[in-house]
Amino acid sequence: MIRKAVRKDIPNLKKITEACARHMIAQGIFQWNEQYPSVAVFQKDIEQENMYVFELDEKLAGCVMLSFHKDDFYDSVQWHTEDQKQLYVHRLAVHPDFQGNGIAQKMMDFGEDFAQQNGCISVRLDTFSKNPRNNIFYQKRNYQLAGKIFFAQKSPHPFYCYEKVF
User: Fold this and answer.
1) pTM of the complete model
2) Which residues in the chain come in under a pLDDT of 50?
């Protein structure tokens, strides 16, 4: 079941993303760490009603942030569509104990359906260039590479920006 996150979910959201960070670091992927995503980030996501969680057997198995707001760091990207009404996906995570069960696919299906129901012309997102699993995941879902951005505080490697046009 996918539902909007509430404040009491924050400790479990942090546990999910910390477990994901450890899992990625063990594979040599330095995308997330103990500092990001932070409790403050989750608080803001929930206050703005943009965070969704995937519950499985009354446990939080994953999360995703869906927003119509375009962050300034995307201004340099040559997107495939003009800025109109797009949905931006951030912080998609599935706890490693639940990975491989199609949860990320279901959450992206939810996000894409949400975008279409709200009149969006596309979905945009970014993922770490050194995370081959994520890049393949989005490419298989027909997301097209639109450019790259850098977060110097996170990594010297770029984050690839993808867009799926409806």
Assistant:
1) 0.95
2) none
